[in-house]
Design goal:
- By secondary structure, the chain is mainly beta.
- Helices cover 10% and strands 45% of the residues.
- The chain has a 22-stranded antiparallel β-barrel.
């Protein structure tokens, strides 16, 4: 079946990385540029959320490892101004203590020294505790009211970690470098299935790098431990001992004086170990292996003109075929300090581990005696199909129902009508059991089916969650989910940069991209079977008439009884049309590939040095649209069931003024960040994020009489513009922090 086709306009932006030439890492590698995954969204005191290239999957990696590079998940971080500074290969020992609002207190240290043979050894550590910003999730609150087993929110926060690095030859690019680290968090974590509480969420990694002449090799292992973690919405524990391995080897050669080639191979292996709490039915066959090779080239056409190219080949153990990602860049330097880049690239983004292996209950929807689990599940190798046939059902389709566990039934609610009558009679034997004979045994075709789709946004808001054709603008049907394929990004970008030594720089960029096989966010793909209104009312009228004639129902109550019974029956979700691969009733949330979409980007940034100590910096980024509406001629505010949100604002700007007194030891910075609101739709979260303007500032100063001691005062959101940066995250208010740093040597 052909994939759904999206309209040809859907911009893709990476927040402040909009200034980059291209949103694809391989194209950036081809032109020697790095890609920033975007400025993070603050979703807690130490939690940050990055919107990366797969922008609809905002929580990529929140439950399973995702890539060689830093994981694009809800990362552990530090409040503004408390981030450890990079000291490079410098030696020395220093420690910092800090404390402030939200009961924040902690410290960090760094020690680096030259050891035997001139090698560099560096050790770092940190500790932080406090109280996170409070948040009341309306879904959690509603579910908690109906279940005494769901945990209450715990906003206590504690984080500690340590790291080390050993560089065998820090003054020589050749040699070995080893590094590793451990980070542990007690606090709340956002995931695409709702918030989770981590009693001791642990991450660790080890990495080795080797360089010798033109030969290079890298090896990485990364592990995770969920500790005592639990989902707030379901109360289910999370087990996680997942491992991620990666290796890369490369070699470069020069051809004459103008050409250089870099070629090599890499491999990545993801091994989820969750005891079924995250990967469920996939637990015993959930390993992912990606292997490939790459070739990068650089050609100096003249002193001012360079040509760069890249080619990457990859094969994924769960995605068919060989993916090819070529890129080419033209780099022109017309004058000193002026650089022009033009880049064309085709890059393949593989489905994430979440999109392939996820299998978690994301919540529970209750309608009287009918209980349905919200089942978030990755797409299996063969996709989700609806080939099973049950004659007599809607289009001969089959349904699953909690009223008949384990049975495959025709997608026709009338097959369970007698069961519903018996349940009603048993609920009030004195009043309802005598009425049972009047309502049993409907004639074939007397009660017709109606299909509705579950809407996560309406459910989260506590409103009736099922929508039909009158809202969606199209009939509710069945659409098989094909096996996921890589998203292919074809891009063209232009970037001009002017830099004047000692005075500043200005940079402008525009880009245009198209994405084929775009992977959408988690969506409910299984229609729910209800009774059709007209046939249901006619059936109830027909069955009530004998009761009126026999004096069981007063004539004056006839219309009221018909009205109430009809409305009651129409609200019953009798069953769900489940794919062949799922044998239990539920509301299945999963992913799918879409057709082709076109993307556009633009941005401007500038930095000006007024004096050697005083500088100004500003950035501005703009996108033409914020969302895509699948239903033609429908509202374009991203609030409909079929909308796809970019999860990013239309415009985002910042301005800062910075003072650095190298000799005096005084420093100061003030920055303003402003962004417009946007509609967020990722995982189980959907809703409006309002725009905000935030003023941050920090001051650093020496302590008189103590030359080794420096102090800092830091304030974020000084105007206390309380705002939420993503749905499901708490409101961020003013935070004031003070710190003292002592340099031992």
């Amino acid at each position: 079946m052909p994939r759904r086709q999206l309209p040809p306009r859907l911009p893709l932006i990476l927040a402040l990385a909009w200034l980059a030439l291209d949103p694809t890492p391989r194209a950036a590698e081809a032109q020697g540029l790095s890609v920033n995954p975007g400025s993070p969204l603050e979703v807690g005191l130490v939690q940050r959320l990055f919107i990366g290239p797969n922008f609809t999957n905002a929580f990529a990696g929140s439950l399973l490892p995702v890539s060689w590079h830093d994981e694009q998940w809800t990362r552990f971080s530090f409040p503004y101004g408390l981030e450890p500074l990079s000291r490079g290969d410098s030696t020395g020992t220093e420690g910092t203590l800090f404390g402030g609002g939200r009961a924040l207190a902690g410290g960090r240290f760094r020690h680096a020294d030259r050891v035997g043979g001139g090698a560099l050894f560096e050790a770092t550590g940190h500790y932080l505790r406090g109280t996170d910003w409070p948040f009341v999730d309306p879904v959690e609150k509603r579910l908690r009211e109906s279940s005494a087993f769901l945990p209450a929110r715990d906003d206590r926060l504690e984080r500690w970690g340590a790291g080390m690095r050993y560089d065998r030859r820090p003054d020589d690019p050749d040699g070995w470098v080893f590094e590793g680290g451990l980070d542990r968090l007690r606090g709340n974590q956002l995931t695409e299935l709702g918030a989770a509480h981590a009693g001791s969420w642990t991450r660790w990694h080890g990495q080795a790098r080797y360089r010798r002449g033109r030969l290079s090799a890298d090896a990485l292992v990364r592990g995770r431990g969920a500790g005592e973690a639990v989902f707030y919405r379901t109360g289910r524990a999370i087990e996680d001992r997942s491992l991620f391995f990666a290796g890369r080897i490369g070699h470069s050669i020069r051809l004459g004086g103008r050409h250089q080639l870099l070629y090599g191979a890499d491999v990545r292996n993801t091994r989820p170990v969750t005891d079924g709490t995250v990967t469920g039915v996939y637990e015993d066959a959930d390993e992912i292996l990606v292997a490939g090779g790459y070739l990068n080239s650089s050609t100096r056409i003249s002193d001012r003109l360079h040509l760069a190219g890249a080619l990457q080949l990859e094969r994924h153990s769960r995605v068919g075929g060989l993916t090819v990602s070529p890129a080419a860049s033209l780099i022109l330097q017309p004058a000193r300090g002026h650089s022009f880049f033009a880049t064309a690239a085709r890059s393949a983004f593989m489905p994430s581990a979440d999109q392939l292996l996820l299998d978690v209950r994301a919540g529970r929807m209750t309608a009287g005696v009918l209980i349905y689990d919200l089942m978030a599940r990755g797409v299996p190798d063969g996709g989700f199909t609806f080939n099973d046939r049950c004659p007599g059902g809607y289009r001969d389709l089959c349904m699953r129902s909690p009223l008949a566990p384990g049975e495959r039934l025709p997608a026709d609610p009338s097959v369970l009508w007698n069961t519903l009558v018996e349940i009603a009679a048993a609920s009030d034997p004195m009043a309802l059991r005598p009425l049972r004979p009047f309502f049993r045994d409907p004639e074939p075709g007397e009660l017709l089916p109606r299909l509705l789709l579950f809407n996560q946004k309406e459910w989260a808001a506590g409103r009736p969650p099922f929508l039909g054709e009158e809202v969606l603008g199209r009939p509710v049907g069945i659409d098989p989910v094909d096996p996921l394929e890589p998203s292919i990004v074809n891009s063209l970008s232009l970037h001009y940069r002017i830099e004047v030594e000692g005075r500043g720089r200005i940079s402008a960029a525009i880009g245009r991209s198209s994405v084929d096989n775009f992977i959408g966010p988690l969506r409910v793909e299984t229609p729910t079977v209800f009774f059709e209104p007209e046939s249901t009312r006619a059936f109830i009228e027909k069955r009530v008439e004998p009761m009126v004639r026999q004096g069981i129902v007063f004539p004056a109550l006839r219309d009221l009884l018909i009205h109430d019974l009809t409305n009651l029956v129409l609200e019953l979700p009798v069953g769900t049309i489940m794919p062949d691969q799922v044998t239990t009733p539920g509301l299945l949330l999963t992913y799918r590939n879409y057709g082709r979409v076109d993307l556009s980007t633009a941005g401007l940034s500038a930095e000006v040095s007024l004096t050697p100590a005083l500088s100004l910096e500003g950035t501005h980024a703009h996108i033409s649209e914020q969302c895509f509406d699948f239903v033609e001629d429908a509202a374009t505010d991203c609030s409909d069931l079929e909308d796809i949100s970019l999860n990013l604002p239309k415009t985002k700007s910042s301005f800062s003024i910075r003072y650095e007194g190298a000799e005096s030891g005084y420093s100061a910075e003030a920055r303003i960040r402003r962004q417009r609101g946007f509609y967020a739709n990722a995982g189980v979260y959907a809703g409006d994020v309002e725009g905000y303007t935030v003023l941050d500032a920090q001051v650093g100063l020496p302590v008189p009489g103590l030359p080794r001691v420096s102090a800092a005062l830091i304030g974020t959101n000084l105007l206390d513009d309380r705002h939420q940066e993503f749905i499901g995250a708490p409101e961020i208010g003013r935070l004031l922090v003070a710190s003292l740093t002592y340099a031992f040597r």
